[in-house]
Every structure is written in structure tokens, then in C-alpha cells.
Design a protein that fits this description.
single chain, about 350 residues, alpha+beta, Arc Repressor Mutant, subunit A, SH3 type barrels, five-stranded antiparallel sheet, 10 helices, WH-like_DNA-bd_sf
């Protein structure tokens, strides 16, 4: 007897049918829409259930989603129970260009929480608030209950985030996206001095919970990175921004370690103890880093850098579990830093 038979050869007992593969909700919604748009009369719910291979409850949920979340002109009712489109004004209803499944909505909730809870959330909140309301509505329609926004289910903890002026951020973002020159007063944290700058913004960078502006500095005739929280009184000019080739920008900003831009100065070699290696081996410190396990269980990391300040900070947080092997100037700088720190604890 063929494999497609519903009976066992020996006993004649009925075999359980292999369940039909359940279609995804997106596929059902699209199929429902096509059927309802093409139908000239109401379609019985049982007919829809049989054609889509799902339960009556599922059909009603999908019809409710079409009507409540996507705005479809659905009319339910009749005997037997049926569904149909009633399109007024001669306009045919079409599915919106973008609509989301429950999994996509949940991913969007996580993305929203990341954006709103991290540094710089203030400037983004005005734009994100309507999105939150829309997501909350879609979630309630999706689940069939009004549970509200899933507060506390996703938590984003900012680390060393600095205070950011919303008006400044909006001006910097506008100049960057509209490709216009920007003038501002800059209070450099490294020197403690202020200066007037005119720049051609290239891109905004969100790095370690803080915002930075990569730009061509017309006064210095060079690429520079500016901490947005140190920018004061920005003025968007009328002149178009100078365009820097992306490859040139990446070579200047991305080649070195961290946010401290500039040409690569050297390659650092750092060895971590077997205890720290379990964490370091999974960390991404630089796009061009190279790592290898040593025979004794330690881990060796090689990476280019242009400014030692941030690199030393990351290495020294591992304390005695990390050792800078080379270059020698970086190793000596680490030793001096540790001696100065130890002096603070001497009696």
C-alpha cells in the first residue's frame, strides 16, 4: 500500500493524517486580503477557514487585525457568518507598505527601549513617542488584550553617559543630514580650552552611550571628531558641506582604536590571564583585531591604535589579569599610570 494511504495494511486501522503545514500570519493576512478584495459577495467564515487551513478563532483574529490595525473596510455578520469588504468612494483598499508580525513588533519594542533609554534619548524622544503609541496599539491588537506597553520587560542601562543638550543635538543632526556647514563654540575636554569652529559634518556616531560628530574642520583643514555634549551655540550655515570620501573618512576615524581618531600609530599586543581570557576572547575591541589562544590558556590580543588614552583605560580595567607586551612606549606608559595610581594609596 502506498505511503499516502490512511489505513494500516495489517489491521485496517486509520492512520493519523499528517497535519498540513500551518501558514504564517503574514501569509494568511495577505491571502485574506486578496480573497476579500476579489469577492463580489460575502465569503462564509467556514469557507475562509477551509481554504486557509486554520480554525474559526484564527480567522476572526486575522480579520480583526485587518480591520483594527490595518484599517481594512471589513464588515462581519450574516447567516451563515461571513466577511466582506465595503469600499466607499470607489477607492480600493490596499495593505500598507509596511506591517509587522508579532515577532517583528517585539523586536521593535526592544529597539525602541534601546534608543529611548540610552544616552541622547532626549533629542530622540519627540520623534519616538508617536512610534511608541503606534507599537502599543499594534501589540494590543496582536495579542487581543489591552496590556499596555511592556514596561520593565526590557531594561537598558547606560554606562558613563554624559548630559546632552537637545537643541544642540537637533542642530547637529540637521546639519549632518541636510549636508550643510555648521559653526559652533567647542569646549575641548582634553585641553579645557574653548574655540570657534566651522565644520562640514560627515556623520554622527553613537559610541559608548555618547554622541560624536565626525567632520571636516575648515579652520584646521583636517578631519576631526567632536563630542556633541561639548558643542555650544551651533549655527547651521547656508553653504553646502564639503564632502569627504567615505574611504578617507574611515581611514582616519576607523583605523585607530576607539573614538580617538587619527592614523594608526602602532599595533598593541596584550596578553590576558586564563581567567580573563574567557571574557576577552568574546569581546570585539576593534574591527581589525587579531586574537589567539596561548598554550597555557592565556589569550593574546593584537589591535591597531592611534591614541593610547582609551586603550590604556580598557586594558587597565582588567588589573593584574592583563599585560601590555608591546610596543615598549605603551608598556612604559601603562607602568607610569599604575605607579601614579598606587601613589594615591600610599600612607
Amino acid at each position: 500500500m502506498s505511503q499516502s494511504s490512511d489505513h494500516d495494511d495489517a489491521t485496517g486501522a486509520t492512520r493519523p493524517r499528517k497535519p498540513r503545514a500551518e501558514t504564517s500570519r503574514q501569509e494568511r493576512i495577505m491571502a485574506l486580503h486578496r480573497k476579500l478584495r476579489a469577492a463580489r459577495r460575502p465569503i462564509p467564515i467556514d469557507t475562509l477557514r477551509e481554504e486557509l487551513g486554520c480554525s474559526r478563532a484564527t480567522i476572526y483574529r486575522d480579520l480583526g487585525y485587518l480591520r483594527d490595525a490595518l484599517g481594512a473596510p471589513i464588515i462581519l455578520g450574516g447567516e451563515p457568518s461571513s466577511a466582506r469588504y465595503v469600499e466607499a468612494g470607489g477607492e480600493r483598499f490596499e495593505l500598507p507598505g509596511l506591517w509587522l508580525s508579532s515577532e517583528e513588533l517585539h523586536a521593535l519594542v526592544a529597539l525602541y527601549e534601546m534608543a529611548s533609554r540610552s544616552s541622547g534619548a532626549g533629542p530622540l524622544n519627540e520623534a519616538l513617542t508617536p512610534l511608541k503609541a503606534r507599537i502599543e496599539h499594534l501589540l494590543s491588537v496582536e495579542s487581543g488584550r489591552s496590556g499596555g506597553w511592556p514596561e520593565g520587560r526590557i531594561r537598558v542601562v547606560a554606562s558613563a553617559a554624559r548630559r546632552l543638550d537637545e537643541a544642540v543635538f537637533r542642530s547637529v543632526a540637521t546639519a549632518t543630514l541636510e549636508r550643510r556647514r555648521l559653526s559652533f563654540h567647542y569646549d575641548a575636554r582634553s585641553t579645557g580650552r574653548g574655540s570657534e569652529r566651522e565644520v562640514s559634518p560627515q556623520r554622527l556616531v553613537h559610541y559608548r552611550d555618547n554622541w560624536y560628530l565626525d567632520a571636516w574642520d575648515h579652520g584646521r583643514e583636517a578631519l576631526r571628531s567632536f563630542a556633541v555634549d561639548r558643542i555650544r551655540a551651533p549655527q547651521i550655515g547656508r553653504d553646502a558641506a564639503l564632502e569627504v570620501d567615505p574611504a578617507t573618512l574611515d581611514a582616519h576615524v576607523v583605523a585607530g582604536y576607539g573614538i580617538f581618531s587619527g592614523p594608526t600609530r602602532a599595533v598593541a599586543v596584550i596578553r590576558f590571564s586564563a581567567r580573563a581570557a574567557r571574557w576577552v576572547a568574546d569581546e570585539r575591541w576593534h574591527s581589525r583585531q587579531e586574537g589567539q589562544w596561548l598554550p597555557d590558556g592565556r589569550y593574546e590580543l593584537r589591535l591597531p591604535y592611534s591614541n593610547s588614552r582609551e586603550l590604556l583605560g580598557d586594558v587597565l580595567r582588567y588589573g593584574g589579569d592583563a599585560e601590555i607586551i608591546e610596543p615598549l612606549p605603551l608598556r612604559e606608559e601603562a607602568k607610569s599610570t599604575l605607579h601614579l595610581a598606587l601613589a594615591n594609596y600610599s600612607d
